[in-house]
Amino acid sequence: MEDQDKLQEDAKEEYAEENEQEERDHREKICYICHRPESKAGPMLDMPGGMYMCHHCMQKAFDTISRSNIDLSRFPAMPLFRMDTGSMAGSAQENPKKQKSRKRPEKPALTMKDIPAPHQIKARLDEYVIGQEKAKKAIAVAVYNHYKRAFLGGDQEDEDGVVIQKSNILMIGPTGSGKTYLVKTLARLLDVPLAIADATSLTEAGYIGDDIESVVSKLLAAADNDVERAQKGIIFIDEIDKIAKKKQTTTRDVSGESVQQELLKLLEGSVVEVPIGSNQKNAMTPTASVNTDDILFICGGAFPDLEGIIKERLSRKTTMGFGAVLKDSYDQDPNILSQVTGEDLRAFGMIPEFLGRLPITVTLQGVDEEMLVRILREPKNAIIRQYEKLLAMDEVKLVFEDDALEWIAREALKRGTGARALRAVMEELMLDIMYEIPKDPNIGSVVVTRPYLEKNGGPLIQMRGVEPGTEKPAVN
Predict the structure, then answer these.
(1) Are 195 and 218 a contacting pair, CB within 8 Å?
(2) Fewer CB under 10 Å: which end of the chain, C or N?
(3) How far is CA 165 from CA 138, 162, 198, 270, 431, in A?
(4) pLDDT tens digits, residue range 248-295?
(5) What residues does the AAA+ ATPase domain cover (predicted)?
(6) Is the pTM of this model over 0.85?
(7) Which segments within 49-193 are labelled E, that is strand?
(8) What's the CATH class of domain 369-473?
(9) How far is Cα 294 from Cα 166, in angstroms, rounded to an integer?
(10) Terminal C-alpha separation, the chain
(11) Are 235 and 215 within 8 A, CB to CB?
């Protein structure tokens, strides 16, 4: 009996080893240095310890060693490799590359037929973004024209001598007005890679912080190191107002005006060498040439105090006697940002050359209580719908009364962070419900009421098989 058990155990171990070997054979090899898969980097060299290295990284390693004048005779155990491309090509022919079962399907490069018309772009944005009608229309037109320019050959002159200049976008709006969300939604709808960078982390080359080219590295990573896809992508630089020129300074402004200066070539269109699989350049990291000419740059910021600059400019134009009345009307104007000009932005601290590379200015308005209520329930991926779906997995129906939604919107508005406060408020008020409801499988529905939100009782609970309208408040 013991012999039979031992035979079964041996058979199981042998079967497990065979499965493991088969799994290893079908797993795509990844370069230990640049992290590119074999399908991107080409044939891999097997290294000790079960590691792999592509021929590009291996060549860089040997070039680094040769430049550093290291005496290889001091490393007798180090085997010598022949690293010429011809020998690599030959080995690839002798050992055909196996079709990997886990290979990620490559996305085709963007074509003109993939770009919807402006009205279609706006209609799709309407499904996810509430309000900001003028901003959505302006962005839809700008994006459509940008990709038409890209497919016409960028800044190359056509047979008629017409050169279409690049049009990047500057988005201005208070915190929580939806700048980042709008850009994310746009990139998802167009199915193009998106990189989001924070302008506050950017510094002039040679100083502590991220250099300007790091934003292109992020885009290349978002495109799975596919240069062609990356060159049709979108880069969103947030907090752009934080690199405004400082009014008075006796030291070099390495994170303000200098960053604006270094961004100029990137925005206008240039070829940059960026590391693959890393944000830092070094001798061991492979690089790729990325042309930013067809990349759409969108810069966004809240621009605090810009409203005051606009009001001051408008007030200077008023006539005596009526000036005070007009100034008061400007103070009450919720859409004052829509009257922004280049003069106002220069007064804020943005240099003229930088503004020239961002010819399209889009302003977003702050959210009010009514808009927050709509944001809660109207978009396709509204927060309310997300919680409804989560509880539906427990076969529980979730309902919010109208006055409860108004209470949530009002509470979020108090926090001063716009629409992003909705998630925080919802997480707090739904904590007890999401914790308690799964305990009882007999619960069929939960109704969130305003009294519950105001700590005057619990939500209305309806048990399965009970007639509607007979809900009872839950015990706190």
Answers:
(1) yes
(2) N
(3) 17, 10, 26, 14, 52
(4) 555 555 557 888 888 998 998 889 888 886 656 655 667 888 999 999
(5) 165-324
(6) no
(7) 51-54, 169-172
(8) mainly alpha
(9) 8
(10) 61
(11) yes
